[in-house]
Task: inverse folding
């Protein structure tokens, strides 16, 4: 305590609480939370349900310059996809690749099994299905 002075009243020093300001902060926080939650739900749904997906089924090295690959494609109705397959040598360097256009009438209405043969520059020891893309889905799946 100081001599001759009284401790200032907190309301005089900092002002009175304004109830309207607290209400505005709560409402603004609720709006931001609803918008962020909506964006999170939309993002999870959009990225969790791609238009095209693919899965490698089998591959076979036919000779030192050819590989045969089979993979399954699942498409949304009316979607055309491009699927990329790469052949790799023992050093994991790409020695060949193929881009296969998969229309909606491939196999059945939603994709199906695709088998393709493509040339390589040297003997492949592995095959990588990079994935399928569509005009609205740029990330291969």
Result:
């Amino acid at each position: 305590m100081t001599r001759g002075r009284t401790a200032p009243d907190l309301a005089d020093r900092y002002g009175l609480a304004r109830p309207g300001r607290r209400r505005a902060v709560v409402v603004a926080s609720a709006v931001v939370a609803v918008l962020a939650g909506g964006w999170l739900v939309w993002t999870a749904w959009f990225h969790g349900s791609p238009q095209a997906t693919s899965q490698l089924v089998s591959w076979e090295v036919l000779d030192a310059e050819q590989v045969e690959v089979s993979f399954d494609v699942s498409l949304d109705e009316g979607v055309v996809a491009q699927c990329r397959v790469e052949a790799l040598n023992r050093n994991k360097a790409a020695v060949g690749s193929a881009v296969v256009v998969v229309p909606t009438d491939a196999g059945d209405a939603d994709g199906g099994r695709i088998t393709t043969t493509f040339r390589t520059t040297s003997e492949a020891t592995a095959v990588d299905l990079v994935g399928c893309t569509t005009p609205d889905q740029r990330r291969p799946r």
Remarks:
- The chain has two domains: 10-48, 52-133.
- The chain has a mean pLDDT of 85.
